Amino acid sequence: MLPIDTVRAAFPALSLADEGLPRVYLDAPAGTQVAGRVVQAMSHAMMDACANDGGLFRTSRAAGAIADQAIASAATFFNCADDEVIFGLNTTSLFFQMAPLIAHNWQAGDNILLMSRPGCRRRRRAGLRCASWNGIVRPLRSSWRRCPI
Q1: Domain ranges of the chain
Q2: From the CB of residue 125, how many other CB atoms can be counted at a distance below 10 Å?
Q3: Pairwise CA distance, residues 124 & 142, whole Å
Q4: Pairing of strands 112-116, 139-143
Q5: What is the predicted pLDDT for the residue at 144?
Q6: Which residues contact 31 (CB under 8 A, 6 or more apart)?
Q7: How many CB atoms lie within 10 A of CB 136?
Q8: 20-53, pLDDT tens digit by residue?
Q9: Distances in Å between the alpha carbon of 146 and those of 12, 48, 51?
């Protein structure tokens, strides 16, 4: 197991303090606190390789190389082929795009369960929007605290 101090040291945001007290993050840190090496890689990409994909100029080729390396790394991590890896937008944006596909066969009178979990309001709104498109008037609301799912 990795020593916790080593792990914490890799995340610059965890060293911040407020009025001399260590800052506490309680906000699902999926993208909020990132490792210092991620910040450095993002900085490199923004300064040296920020360009549209597929161009014949240096920064476009550099951006393509970063994307190719990310795909290869993800394929290694998931033990799959490079062509099985697809990167998309953030989860909320992806859900808004996928929700109409999921809701395609919903009909008036169908029941859908919409979880009310902290941080999921936008995804819940996408479900409600799909329900209204298909004339569904009975979304079942459940609190994440009461639901074991």
Answers
A1: 4-84, 91-143
A2: 15
A3: 11
A4: parallel
A5: 46
A6: 90
A7: 19
A8: 998 877 766 566 788 999 999 999 999 999 998 8
A9: 35, 49, 47
